[in-house]
Design brief:
Distance between the termini: 68 Å
Number of helices: 20
Membrane topology: Multi-pass membrane protein
Low-confidence stretches: none
Main location: membrane
CATH topology of one domain: GMP Synthetase, Chain A, domain 3
Oligomer: single chain
Shape: globular
Bound molecules: 2-acetamido-2-deoxy-beta-D-glucopyranose
Radius of gyration: 26 Å
Keywords: ATP-binding, Cell membrane, Ligase, Lipid droplet, Lipid transport, Membrane, Nucleotide-binding, Peroxisome, Transmembrane, Transmembrane helix, Transport
Catalytic activity: a very long-chain fatty acid + ATP + CoA = a very long-chain fatty acyl-CoA + AMP + diphosphate
GO cellular component, one term: peroxisomal membrane
Length: about 675
């Protein structure tokens, strides 16, 4: 008791001290900034000081401000939102091209900050008094992308409830699990997304009889919340922000499929939602004049946090599409006058594969940001769609930090982290790449002392992010709700010193001599074959550059072959609709082989090849690689599939049962 109150007192004193010191320091730096800027010009060529100063000057102001807001218990995103309403009331906050009955036609709905705020307060009234939603509760939303998603989300934040964004494709046991782990009191359901949840309703009610499932009648609800005469509800500050709340408690919950089985609920802390997203938005040059278009599901962190929160933190406008469509993409971008678009790598490929759209060059987009744009299509993407800047970032839902780039011209293509010398130096305390075990790229290397080592330039290693208080990891890394085991498995201890702790990204990253970082692979995505490291990504890129318009997608994984060391390359091909007649065409495969022989090391050429109608994706358009890694040969799980193999290292031919026997017994050499 006594210790606790002394600690609390010390913390108070510390907070006051920080407030007394940091504000004058920030002021001094701001006053000096013209002089500092002159000096910076000279240094820029060599150390890219300007880009760094752009970031640091913001950071120096934003962080003390944020600490101050924590001290006052006003750190929730709601207050940032209220500030934007006061400052930018008549600016657009939301823009939604609502699809009309006539296919391919849209009506663009717009909401200013003030309109959005009023709607949110009216909806809060409905939620609070009609549905009984109370502060501190967790409330699930099963919603597709539309304005009501944002209305509900911010109404819950106003009330002081924690929104939990269900993936509306989830059905059955994983859905029950998602609702259960978050201790959800009620679920609000979009009519467009009601199918899976209706289907699972008996199981939900059996296991969780107290959960209220609210199927929303949108027309009725809209009539109330759009009517200026409807009552509003603004939560009392002391109820929305009780003193006990810390800034690493959940702002919202987001589900990730993770590596095994049931979904995990990742905690999105206030700290990430407020300070992380503000900084991110600022680095991507989002201003109160920007419109950021997203076609990615809002229940994922990329669209919700790095889209909506990052944009609102800067007073910009979010334009969203109900769902991604390659053919309708640029039209919606054009209609909403977007200045930024969000992507994942697969979206860029789909767009490059689609027919020319009359809108693809008519838009205002200068910046595309996202994650997973591959180096082989980077420039083509920029050129074809006339985009100046790529903001490739590295982030994952649960990671405590994101990396960013702001790539112009020809420097830095393919990188996912690009800063100047100063920021790199500061970040080296927080982010690092460690060497991997030479025999197993899924474990980190430990030296004689049992410690890890920083990977040399150019060598792929696992990216780690420091957890500042190893005894209290939740202050830096909140992990998964109610899943200690999964949370702990993402923490690596005794890395550079006994007792330190780092968050494991599970991704292989490499650096170059300029200090830029590049994503290499998901860990385990590189596989070993003939004692060599094969990068699945590299093989995929080569196959794609041979058959870019013939294939619409390709996946390469390493397969275990009985009685063989390592994993043999297996390429899964999905043909473009115009080239379906090339399915199982051996001549095509061998033309590809000739190309690969000239562009890949011999050991990297896929040993097995298969065709599928459609490569499996997660809901966020990411390829589900794991399912291919366990492919059953020679004829698939049901014995009805056909595969090809690289016979005698010469040509691809159909894989027969007797070939397979010869491979396993070692008679046929791979
Ligand atoms: C928008 O941002 C610009 C530049 O930062 C600023 O001068 C202007 O006052 C802002 N507009 C509003 C309405 O806040
Ligand atoms: C909404 O905003 C867009 C982009 O600024 C504009 O083109 C459109 O006309 C607006 N829609 C309405 C209904 O005002
Ligand atoms: C394979 O990768 C590991 C880990 O990065 C590395 O130590 C090893 O030298 C590589 N092997 C070859 C043959 O390049």
């Amino acid at each position: 008791m006594v210790v606790a109150s002394i600690a609390r007192l010390l913390l108070r004193v510390l907070k006051v001290a920080i407030r007394l010191l940091l504000l004058p320091l920030t002021l001094a730096l701001l006053l000096l900034s013209p002089f500092i800027n002159g000096f910076i010009d000279k240094l820029d060529k060599r150390y890219r000081v300007k880009d760094d100063w752009y970031i640091a000057s913001y950071f120096l102001v934003a962080v003390p401000k944020y600490i101050w807001s924590v001290y006052q218990s006003r750190f929730q995103f709601w207050y940032l939102f209220e500030k934007q309403v006061a400052k930018n009331g008549d600016h657009l906050a939301l823009s939604y091209p609502r699809p009309l009955l006539e296919k391919g036609e849209y009506e663009v709905e717009n909401y200013t900050y003030q309109e959005l705020y009023d709607i949110v307060l009216r909806l809060s009234y409905v939620l609070y008094y009609d549905y009984g939603v109370k502060e501190g509760e967790c409330v699930a939303m099963d919603y597709t992308n539309k304005p009501l998603f944002i209305f509900l989300w911010f109404a819950l934040w106003n009330i002081g409830a924690v929104p939990s964004f269900l993936n509306y494709n989830t059905i059955g046991a994983p859905l029950v699990h998602s609702i259960k782990i978050a201790n959800v009191k009620s679920v609000f359901i979009d009519p467009l997304a009601a199918g899976p949840i209706r289907h699972t309703e008996p199981e939900i009610l059996k296991e969780l009889p107290d959960v209220k499932l609210n199927y929303i009648k949108e027309e009725d609800l809209n009539e109330i919340i759009m009517n200026p005469a409807s009552p509003q509800f603004l939560q009392e500050t002391s109820k929305r922000s009780p003193e006990t709340l810390t800034d690493f408690t959940p702002a919202c919950l987001i589900y990730t499929s993770g590596t095994t089985g049931l979904p995990k609920s990742a905690i999105m802390s206030w700290r990430k939602a407020v300070i992380g997203c503000s900084l991110f938005g600022y680095i991507l040059r989002i201003t109160n004049r920007s419109v950021v278009f997203t076609a990615m599901p809002l229940y994922h962190s990329t669209a919700a946090l790095l889209g909506v929160c990052a944009v609102f933190s800067q007073g910009g406008c979010v334009a969203m599409s109900n769902r991604f469509s390659a053919s309708a993409f640029w039209k919606q971008v054009y209609l909403t006058k977007s200045t930024h678009i969000q992507y994942v790598g697969e979206i860029c490929r789909y767009l490059l594969h689609s027919k020319e759209s009359e809108y693809e060059k008519k838009h205002n987009v200068q910046i595309a940001y996202g994650n997973g744009l591959r180096a082989d299509i980077w420039q083509e993407f920029k050129q074809r769609f006339g985009i100046d800047v790529i903001g490739e970032f590295y982030a994952s839902t649960e990671a405590p930090f994101a990396t960013t780039t702001f790539q112009r011209g020809n420097f830095g293509i393919g990188a996912c982290r690009s800063y100047g010398t100063v920021v790199n130096f500061i970040l080296s305390y927080q982010q690092t790449i460690v060497r991997m075990d030479p025999d197993d790229d899924s474990t980190v290397y430990r030296n004689e002392k049992g410690l890890c080592e920083v990977a040399p330039v150019g060598e792929p290693g696992e990216m780690l992010m420091r957890i500042f208080m190893p005894r209290k990891p939740e202050s830096s890394f909140q992990g998964y709700l109610g899943n200690k085991k999964a949370t702990e498995s993402k923490v690596l201890r005794d890395v550079f010193r006994k007792g330190d702790a780092w968050y494991r990204s599970g991704d292989l990253i490499k650096s170059d001599k300029y200090g830029l970082w590049y994503f290499v692979d998901r860990m385990g995505d590189t596989f070993r074959w003939k004692s060599e490291n094969v990068s699945a990504t590299e093989v995929e890129d080569q196959i794609m550059s041979f058959a870019n318009y013939i294939l619409s997608a390709v996946v390469v994984v390493g397969l275990k072959v009985p009685n063989h060391e390592g994993r043999a390359g297996f390429a899964v091909l999905q043909l473009s609709p115009e080239y379906l007649d090339l399915k199982e065409d051996v001549k095509f495969l061998n033309e590809m082989l000739n190309y690969l022989k000239n562009s890949l090391p011999k050991y990297a050429i896929p040993i097995f090849v298969g065709f599928v109608d459609e490569i499996e994706h997660t809901d966020n358009h990411k390829i589900r690689k794991k399912s291919y890694r366990n492919q059953v040969l020679p004829r698939g799980e049901n014995g009805d599939q056909r595969f090809f193999w690289l016979k005698d290292n010469k040509e691809y031919t159909l894989l027969t049962d007797s070939d397979w026997d010869a491979i396993i017994s070692g008679k046929a050499k791979l």
